[in-house]
């Protein structure tokens, strides 16, 4: 982990940011010997497929079937459809 002063950061911002982005370094910025910031590499972007894979269904298949049966028993007969289709 690299440590720079606030003055060094101001004078060499491009170099510091290149070290973080290209080499994955973490840089600590100090002012008057006190840590004021920590610059860390950004997390890699995720694809839509990865994000959607993490979404869990809200109902289990058994819960969905029970909900469907209960709603029909209460008179809801309109066919279910995908609202985004």
In short:
The protein is an alpha+beta fold.
Describe this structure in words.
This protein has 85 residues and is an alpha+beta fold. The protein has a domain at 2-39: YefM-like fold. It has four helices and three strands. Strands 1-2-3 form a three-stranded mixed β-sheet. It starts with a strand and ends in a 12-residue tail after the last helix.
Q: Topology of this structure?
A:
Elements: E1 2-5, H1 6-11, H2 13-23, E2 27-31, E3 34-39, H3 48-54, H4 61-73
Parallel strand pairs: 1-2
Antiparallel strand pairs: 2-3
CATH topology call of the domain at 2-39: YefM-like fold
Indicate the radius of gyration in whole angstroms: 26 Å
| CATH architecture classification of the domain at 2-39 | 3-Layer(aba) Sandwich
- Distance between termini? 51 Å
The proportion of strand residues reads: 15-25%
Q: Roughly what is the average pLDDT, rounded to an integer? A: 87
The percent of residues in helical segments reads 40-55%
The biggest beta sheet is recorded as:
3 strands, mixed
Q: In order across it, which strands form the biggest sheet?
A: 1-2-3
> What is the count of DSSP helices, taking H or I runs of 4+ residues?
4
Number of strands: 3
The unreliable regions are: none
CATH class of the domain at 2-39: Alpha Beta
Shape: rod-shaped
């Amino acid at each position: 982990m690299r440590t720079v002063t606030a003055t060094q950061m101001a004078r060499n911002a491009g170099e510091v940011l290149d070290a973080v982005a290209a080499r994955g370094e973490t840089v600590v910025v100090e002012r008057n010997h006190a840590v004021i910031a920590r610059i860390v590499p950004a997390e890699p972007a995720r694809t839509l497929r990865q994000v959607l894979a993490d979404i869990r269904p809200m109902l289990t298949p058994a819960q969905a079937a029970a909900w469907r049966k209960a709603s029909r028993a209460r008179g809801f007969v309109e066919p279910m459809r995908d609202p985004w289709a």
